[in-house]
Structures are given as C-alpha cells and as structure tokens.
Amino acid sequence: MNPRSRVRPVAIALGLLAIALAVPAVLWSAWAITQARLPYNEEGRHFDGLVVHHAGSEYVYAAVALVLWLLVGLAGWGACRVQQRAQREVERRKRSDAAASLF
After folding, report:
1. Degrees (nearest 5) of the Cα angle 19, 23, 28?
2. Is the pTM of this model over 0.85?
3. Which of 8, 57, 66, 103 lies 20 to 30 Å from 17, alpha-carbon distance?
C-alpha cells in the first residue's frame, strides 16, 4: 500500500481542522479589537445601549484568540509534517526498490 494514500486522510483532516479553527480565531480576534477600541468611562465601563462592557475583558478575548491561533498553527504544521513524512517514505521506498532491482 502506498504510504501517501494512508496518511493523506490524516493530512487532509489536519488541514481542515486548521481551517475550522481559523474561523473562530478570526472572530475572537475581531471581537477583542472591537472591545479594545470602545470608549470606557472613568469607572472602566462602556454601555452600548444593551450591554455594559467592562474594561479588561478585551484581554480575555485576546487570550482566547491567541490560543485558537496557536491551535491553527499547530494543526497546519502537523498537516505539513505528515505530508512531508509520507513524501520521504515514498522516496525511500523508490530508492530501496531501485537498489534491489540491481541485484
């Protein structure tokens, strides 16, 4: 069985995981930036007509976004690593088959 065919689903799954995690990472990042730009009063509060936002919550949103971006990077790195490992295995097998055919 071809090693690339065995790991291709793993690489695709990790790539899709990276894309799926990138969407909430972008949303959390945008929300953190939006919260950081709100005009807060001297008590550290902002009332937008519906909700009272407290100063400092943007740091929590930014931390969650950072964790999501780290997971995106880790999943993307894993997908690349799995694909490269499969490619090296294919090349190694080609070399060993070529060496075996000489005898």
Report:
1. 140
2. no
3. 57
